[in-house]
Design brief:
248 residues; 46% helix; seven-stranded parallel beta sheet; binds NADP nicotinamide-adenine-dinucleotide phosphate; alpha/beta; Rossmann fold
Length: 248
């Protein structure tokens, strides 16, 4: 029998990067997968990559109306499901003096508020014994210049993992966070559209990392699926996948 046979999984933010890698790993293992993304181009390319076996839905992870619509779609596709992986996120890099109210709100809406209400609205459909995995960031715990609003929003998400783990315990749903360090995905080029700037930030991150490299999306996928399906005595925790950056 395939590793994830019979499992039904919803991934919010999986049209590229680590979410997409997780969706592919699940499909390869026999799971049914519904993923979301925001941009039309991302939704179309993910549908091509996942083929007919993956359901790809356009849904803005910041919008409560769209999260409600997503819950209805999930109910129609799956009725109930086993894993909610809340992975959509983005980092705006700006120092204190350049951070606008709009940037601040964007960071909290996407990285904290949206995920909170996604869990609220989708948890009722998660089977007993199921799991929630939230994607936080090494920026939760590192004082990295330029990511105050992003780091604080992800720290809020890390805090949700503890409280929601306690609240969902009676339904036997575990809630954990996977905490990436620098991972080789399209996010850096989205944050720094100028090619030289992205390359310089990547160089600095590689240099600062104890393992002197970026992680791969598949390394996050393996950790998220470990938390979801194998770490059955673990809840409210965070698993750093960061080359040792937060610990060494
Ligand atoms: N890569 C890293 O170094 C790193 C480090 C620490 C934490 N993280 C976190 O890891 C997660 C995944 O990032 P990634 O590196 O894999 O980036 P990515 O390749 O840019 O993937 C992000 C995914 O989230 C989706 N998304 C973004 N905004 C959305 C919105 N408003 N509504 C719905 N979907 C949305 C994107 O879809 P669209 O492209 O269509 O918007 C995409 O599918 C994020 O939460 C990020 O903050 C990444």
């Amino acid at each position: 029998m395939e590793r994830y046979q019979g499992k039904k999984v919803v991934i919010i933010g999986a049209t590229s990067g680590m979410g997409l890698a997780t969706a592919k790993m699940l499909l390869d293992g026999g799971a049914r997968v519904l993923v979301t993304g925001r941009s039309k181009a991302g939704v179309e390319s993910a549908q091509k990559e996942l083929g007919n076996s993956g359901v790809v839905v356009a849904s803005d992870a910041r919008s409560l109306t769209e999260i409600d619509a997503l819950a209805s779609r999930v109910k129609a596709e799956f009725d109930t499901f086993d894993l909610l992986f809340v992975n959509a996120g983005f980092a705006v890099f700006a120092p204190l003096e350049n951070t606008t109210e709009a940037m601040y709100d964007e960071m909290f809406n996407l990285n904290a508020k949206g995920p909170f209400f996604a869990v609220q609205k989708l948890a009722p459909l998660i089977n007993r014994g199921g799991a929630v995995v939230l994607t936080t960031s090494v920026a939760n715990v590192k004082g990295m210049p330029g990511v105050a609003a992003y780091g604080a929003a992800k720290a809020a998400l890390r805090s949700f993992a503890r409280v929601l783990a306690a609240e969902l315990l009676p339904r036997e749903i575990r809630v954990n966070a996977v905490t990436p360090g620098p991972i080789d995905t399209p996010i850096l080029n989205k944050a720094f559209p100028e090619k030289d700037a992205a390359a310089e930030v990547a160089r600095q991150m590689r240099e600062a990392n104890p393992m002197k490299r970026f992680g791969t999306p598949e390394e996050i996928a393996k950790a998220a699926l470990f938390l979801a399906f194998e770490a059955t005595f673990t809840t409210g925790a965070e698993l750093p996948v960061d080359g040792g950056w937060s610990q060494l």
